[in-house]
Design a protein that fits this description.
Keywords: Coiled coil. The protein is α+β, with helices and mostly antiparallel strands and 279 residues long. 58% of the residues lie in helices and 16% in strands. It contains eight helices and six strands, in the order αβββαββααβαααα. The chain has a six-stranded antiparallel barrel, surrounded by four helices.
Length: 279
């Protein structure tokens, strides 16, 4: 992420979706995708327009020769998180599904955007690529079938992460000279997958809280635990980079593993009875 985008994101979240500078007065959202290579969440500001129940964003990259990174990410994983400013001056966050429009629909939507903002006509004229138009569809969590699907996916991902966590722990038995390198390789895979999972969960939690208000306190705890896990992973990665002593690495991995096992168990104990009471 560039420093410029980082400042825009910080200002957006601090001011209920309003920013100054080149985006002042623009309809702006924050789009968080999962890195196609890294598996880590990446947040990008994007201009949007409403089109019925969906939101449209444009992969213009200011007319550059390549699609922006966020477009490649959502092509690999259509599950995204959207942040929007509200009339009350807060930021609403929700999970969405990204759909790349095609053919006549894409051409019509892009032409309409050019009519609204001639800069987009200049962007298209300045590049050989066809600038994609992406529709963002809010995930509907009122359908019981959707609840069951979320519950099943939660268990599936937790089981996969538990298996990767076990492999990470097995690496602790490596001889001291190779321990750091082995842990670094496992952490690259595991930490990326865990970060993407928590990013996707955070996008769903706000919707779940509206659907199941009795879960508000539990969801707040899960959010706090996500933040604590992110800090712990950052600390572990810093230790790996600095070449910390094997004993220190073993202690940190065990601490992280214990906390994650408790976190997974707590999420399942709170969410599964609400989402899939028949399980």
């Amino acid at each position: 992420m560039s420093d410029f985008h980082g400042r825009v994101i910080e200002e957006f979240r601090a001011n209920g979706g309003r920013v100054g500078g080149m985006f002042e007065g623009a309809s702006l959202l924050l789009l968080t995708t999962t890195g196609a290579r890294s598996g880590r969440p990446h947040t990008h500001p994007a201009v949007y327009v409403r089109d019925g129940a969906r939101l449209l964003v444009f992969a213009s990259n200011a007319g550059g020769p390549r699609h922006p990174a966020w477009f490649h990410n959502l092509r690999a994983d259509a599950r995204v998180t959207v942040e929007l400013g509200t009339p009350e001056g807060t930021v609403e966050r929700f999970a969405a599904r990204a759909v790349v429009t095609e053919g006549e629909e894409r051409d019509r939507l892009y032409a309409e955007q050019c009519d609204r903002d001639p800069a987009f006509a200049a962007y298209q004229a300045g590049t050989d690529r066809v600038i994609p138009v992406v529709a963002l569809h809010r995930v509907d969590l009122t359908d019981p079938a959707r609840h069951r699907a979320i519950a099943a996916h939660l268990v599936e991902v937790h089981d996969e992460l538990r298996a990767e966590l076990a492999a990470l722990r097995e690496g602790l038995d490596s001889p001291a000279p190779t321990l750091g390198g082995r842990l670094a390789r496992h952490c690259l895979s595991f930490c990326g997958a865990l970060g993407a999972h928590h990013h996707n969960e955070d996008g769903v939690f706000d919707l779940l809280e509206r659907q199941f208000p009795e879960l508000a306190e539990s969801l707040d705890r899960m959010r706090r635990e996500h933040e604590a896990v992110a800090r712990a992973i950052g600390e572990l990665e810093a230790l790996l980079t600095s070449g910390a002593a094997p004993a220190t690495l073993r202690t940190e991995v065990e601490r992280l593993a214990t906390n994650l096992e408790e976190h997974f168990a707590y999420e399942e104990s709170q969410l599964l009875p609400a989402l899939a009471p028949e399980r």
